[in-house]
Each structure stands twice: as structure tokens, then as C-alpha cells.
Design a protein that fits this description.
64% of the residues lie in helices and 0% in strands. It is mainly alpha-helical.
């Protein structure tokens, strides 16, 4: 299983989870909040998720460091400002919020399993390997940051 570490782009994992969520939703009964609640909730979650993603991308661009999650060893600077004061992984938080918006749209409690699968996979095969490389590259600075800011939220 270690061979999956840093191999599949996180957006691909999110799309696979979204597909699985759809399949689960098709096999279960909806919870039936209806469009009065479902649509505004899904749109709100999606906007917040996109905001997290964009804020993370913009911060990386401002610091002239790589946004490629498959090659964290190419990171040239440790970004700890902006959205990175709230989460060490705002782009993954954003993807999880987009999946939550999708689950709300599907109106299926079973679809929530896809979010759990995304978080588990990304934590184990993406975040932990990334953080290991960042710790080697930035040493005490990363350790201080890691202790100050949560992994997700």
C-alpha cells in the first residue's frame, strides 16, 4: 500500500469519491430536506470549499513554491501565512467541503461515506508522506508550524 503514497493526484481521488458517493446515493433513500434547504446549503459549502482551494493556491503562487502534490520535495518555501494559519492543508479541506456539498446535493446519508474515504485516503497516502518530506526539508520551522496549526481544521 505504501506504493500509493504521492502517486494519485488528490483531485482524481476526490472525483473517484464523488462517483462512489453518487453510486451509494442511488442505492439508498434520500433524507428529503428538499430544494429549499438542499440547494442553498450545497451552494454555500461549495463556495467555502472553492475559497479554501483558491486561497491555498494563491498563497503557494505568492511564495513561488510548487502546487504539485505529487512532488512535495520540490517545495521551495514553507507557507504558514494566510489560509495556512487555519489549516496545514486548505486545498484538501476545500476538496472535502466540495464533496460535502455534493453529498448534500445527493440528499443521501450514505454519500457521506465518500467524504470519510477521501479524508482517510488523503491523510494516509498524501498528507503524511508530504509532511514527512517537509519535516526533512524545513526541520524545526516545520515542526513549530505543525504544532501550531491543525492538519485539517
Amino acid at each position: 500500500m505504501a506504493t500509493l503514497a504521492l502517486k494519485i493526484p488528490p483531485p482524481v481521488i476526490a472525483l473517484l469519491c464523488a462517483g462512489a458517493m453518487y453510486a451509494l446515493a442511488e442505492t439508498t433513500m434520500p433524507y428529503g430536506l428538499g430544494p429549499v434547504w438542499t440547494l442553498p446549503a450545497a451552494i454555500t459549502l461549495a463556495i467555502i470549499g472553492i475559497g479554501f482551494d483558491l486561497a491555498g493556491l494563491i498563497a503557494f503562487r505568492r511564495h513561488h513554491t510548487t502546487i504539485n502534490p505529487l512532488h512535495p520535495e520540490k517545495t521551495s518555501s514553507l507557507v504558514t501565512s494566510g489560509i495556512y494559519r487555519i489549516s496545514r492543508n486548505p486545498m484538501y479541506v476545500g476538496m472535502a467541503l466540495l464533496l460535502l456539498a455534493w453529498a448534500v446535493t445527493l440528499e443521501s446519508p450514505a454519500a457521506l461515506l465518500g467524504i470519510g474515504a477521501f479524508i482517510a485516503y488523503i491523510t494516509h497516502f498524501q498528507i503524511i508522506p508530504e509532511e514527512s518530506l517537509l519535516a526533512q526539508h524545513f526541520g524545526a520551522d516545520f515542526e513549530t508550524y505543525r504544532q501550531r496549526v491543525r492538519r485539517w481544521l
